[in-house]
Design goal:
By secondary structure, this protein is mostly helical. It has a single domain, classed as Methane Monooxygenase Hydroxylase, Chain G, domain 1. The protein contains five helices and no strands. It starts with a helix and ends in a 12-residue tail after the last helix.
């Protein structure tokens, strides 16, 4: 939730500085990226929390991450996408590819605890520095 509040604050600041709203495709991309990040974080956190009870849950989570990536890639071959839609989708794929690699790394290292540093470094908070 903190990330969403900061995103909204930054968006308001950008609008205040420029005096104009960003194009709709930029807003759509930002919302899509936030959704992908939230979904991946929530599902992986849940899998890690339940990993001690269900030994296969991390592999199941990996398959879900891979399935979403494949779905997005399959959409890129559609001919009815506009240039902006295709670019936005490619950006989402790039971000999700990093998430997939992070998930593969967690599975390979057999991480089964949501407090493990390998997971925490993925969800670290990149705080904004306060100016005096």
């Amino acid at each position: 939730m903190l990330v969403v509040k900061r995103g909204v604050k930054c968006s308001r600041l950008a609008i205040g500085l420029t005096g104009t709203l960003p194009p709709p495709y930029v807003v759509t991309l930002q919302v899509s990226l936030l959704g992908i990040q939230f979904q991946w974080t929530a599902e992986t956190q849940s899998a890690l929390t339940n990993a001690k009870v269900d030994k296969t849950i991390m592999n199941k989570n990996m398959k879900k991450v891979d399935a979403l990536l494949r779905d997005m890639v399959n959409i890129t071959v559609r001919s009815d996408l506009t240039r902006n839609q295709r670019t936005n989708l490619e950006t989402c794929i790039t971000v999700h590819m990093h998430q997939k690699e992070s998930t593969e790394d967690l599975v390979k290292k057999k991480i089964k605890d949501p407090t493990d540093f390998e997971w925490l470094k993925q969800v670290r908070e990149l705080g904004l520095q306060r100016r005096p």
